[in-house]
Automatic annotation (TrEMBL):
<dbReference type="InterPro" id="IPR014722">
    <property type="entry name" value="Rib_uL2_dom2"/>
</dbReference>
<dbReference type="InterPro" id="IPR013185">
    <property type="entry name" value="Transl_elong_KOW-like"/>
</dbReference>
<protein>
    <recommendedName>
        <fullName>Elongation factor P</fullName>
    </recommendedName>
</protein>
<dbReference type="InterPro" id="IPR020599">
    <property type="entry name" value="Transl_elong_fac_P/YeiP"/>
</dbReference>
<dbReference type="InterPro" id="IPR008991">
    <property type="entry name" value="Translation_prot_SH3-like_sf"/>
</dbReference>
<feature type="domain" description="Translation elongation factor P/YeiP central">
    <location>
        <begin position="67"/>
        <end position="122"/>
    </location>
</feature>
<dbReference type="GO" id="GO:0003746">
    <property type="term" value="F:translation elongation factor activity"/>
</dbReference>
<keyword id="KW-0648">Protein biosynthesis</keyword>
<dbReference type="InterPro" id="IPR001059">
    <property type="entry name" value="Transl_elong_P/YeiP_cen"/>
</dbReference>
<dbReference type="InterPro" id="IPR011768">
    <property type="entry name" value="Transl_elongation_fac_P"/>
</dbReference>
<keyword id="KW-0251">Elongation factor</keyword>
<dbReference type="InterPro" id="IPR015365">
    <property type="entry name" value="Elong-fact-P_C"/>
</dbReference>
<keyword id="KW-0963">Cytoplasm</keyword>
<comment type="similarity">
    <text>Belongs to the elongation factor P family.</text>
</comment>
<dbReference type="InterPro" id="IPR013852">
    <property type="entry name" value="Transl_elong_P/YeiP_CS"/>
</dbReference>
<dbReference type="InterPro" id="IPR012340">
    <property type="entry name" value="NA-bd_OB-fold"/>
</dbReference>
<dbReference type="Pfam" id="PF01132">
    <property type="entry name" value="EFP"/>
</dbReference>
Amino acid sequence: MASTSDIRNGLCIKFNHDIYKIIEFLHVKPGKGPAFVRTKLKSLTSGKVLDNTFSAGHKIDVIRVETHTFQFLYPEGDEFHFMNAETFEQISLNKNILDAPDLLKEGTNVMVQINTETDLPLSVDMPASVVLEVTYAEPGVKGNTATNATKNATVETGASVNVPLFINEGDKIKIDTASGSYMERVKE
């Protein structure tokens, strides 16, 4: 058993008969009344996100997890196949356990958290950003550049991303996996 002082991003806990991963937290110490911790929890079984407030000193049930590096192999319907980088053992995970499945390119390394009690995968941590090639981009119309004009572009994984007007087909762009937004153009 741990307490609210042990809460951190990425911690997996048992809560309301389900397993949740802490996405965000904030320790709040108001001038009047007891301290508390506001958290944003993501269910690792259904993918739903909920807000919860724990009072200071509240006991939480932490789940022991191991983190292993897995390489993404290929998608097959709603199943995504991964290979352990050390043991070469293959696993398949459902699409809803992934945060940004449309940004996964074959060969990408991800971190998979595995429950040590049941040996079942709990969550997949994507890299902070990925570099993908633009396969289709609408032509940028000259004169539309009053303020930060963007257009729609499709990358090699099939995901749609809003990019600045100067991005063309064949360009490689860096995409933030947390928000799915354009970061910068990559020169090679």
